[in-house]
Write a sequence for this structure.
């Protein structure tokens, strides 16, 4: 309870910070997008990653105001880059949505109003949902996802491959991006099963006309294996770590 109050207070006190991890074209390293990743600049414990607080936020529902804060902050920041560097107009912004956010009746209104307020264009925004959301989607959830898609927003399935997405469902959902979970990318060189999952997701993406993004690329060998499979976009420490806003804006200026 005390930690929940502290977390809710952090949102109110603007103790949260958004970092941005670049996503690149695997073949060239060119910047294609950024993923917003929340950090908590805790007054005593220092800069905390989501591992230290997202689970509690999800359990207590604090993730809903937190997620709204992240979406607004990320859209505002990225709208600033677009004004500063007009050539970056195709750069995509990805923001994670927690299952609790997807379950909110007012999700679509919240997203629409943040886009209107910040001026960030819906067709450059990707919202990442977790595989658990699409496992057994209820009609209201599907309706919300379709409404987001109809605004021009792309929907990505994050950590893909870790759950058991019904493939028949996947095809009928308004999802256009699959993000291969880092655990499979990590094993791509030495673990034939991990490699097979990567190949399967790349092929699935091709069959369903979805973009496949590989996460957690840490070596040139992993990048090369993914390129050979036909995967075109990736993220990972091999290319870029998550960057604080000041470094993200400098990267956008340098790249465009
Ligand atoms: O930044 P880091 O790699 O430590 O993120 C760890 C996890 O936290 C990832 O699974 C990521 O999806 C999640 N995460 C990061 N930022 C957010 C956010 O703003 N909202 C939600 N719901 N999850 C986030
Ligand atoms: O779950 P999600 O994919 O949204 O979260 C991305 C998380 O993965 C972030 O917390 C980010 O810091 C982390 N991450 C990104 N690239 C790498 C990587 O190459 N290696 C490792 N170990 N973690 C990574
Ligand atoms: Mn993500
Ligand atoms: Na992920």
């Amino acid at each position: 309870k005390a930690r929940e109050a502290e977390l809710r207070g952090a949102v109110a006190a603007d103790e949260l910070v958004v970092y941005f991890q670049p996503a690149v074209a695997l073949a060239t390293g060119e910047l294609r997008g950024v993923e917003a990743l929340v950090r908590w600049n805790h007054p005593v414990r220092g800069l905390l990653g989501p591992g230290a607080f997202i689970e509690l936020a999800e359990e207590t529902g604090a993730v809903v105001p937190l997620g709204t804060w992240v979406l607004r902050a990320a859209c505002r920041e990225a709208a600033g880059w677009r004004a500063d560097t007009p050539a970056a107009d195709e750069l995509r912004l990805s923001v994670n949505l927690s299952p609790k956010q997807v379950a909110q009746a007012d999700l679509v209104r919240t997203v629409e109003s943040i886009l209107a307020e910040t001026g960030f264009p819906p067709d450059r925004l990707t919202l990442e949902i977790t595989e658990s959301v699409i496992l057994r989607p209820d009609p209201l959830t599907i309706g919300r996802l379709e409404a987001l898609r109809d605004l021009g927003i792309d929907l990505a399935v994050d950590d893909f491959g870790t759950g058991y997405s019904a493939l028949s469902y996947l095809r009928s959902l308004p999802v256009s991006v699959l993000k291969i979970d880092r655990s499979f990318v990590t094993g791509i060189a030495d673990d034939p099963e991990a490699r097979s999952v990567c190949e399967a997701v790349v092929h699935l993406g091709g069959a369903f006309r979805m973009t496949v993004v590989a996460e957690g690329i840490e070596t040139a060998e992993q990048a090369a294996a993914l390129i050979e499979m036909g995967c075109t976009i990736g993220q990972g420490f091999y290319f870029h770590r998550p960057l604080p806003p000041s470094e993200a804006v400098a990267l956008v200026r340098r790249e465009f």
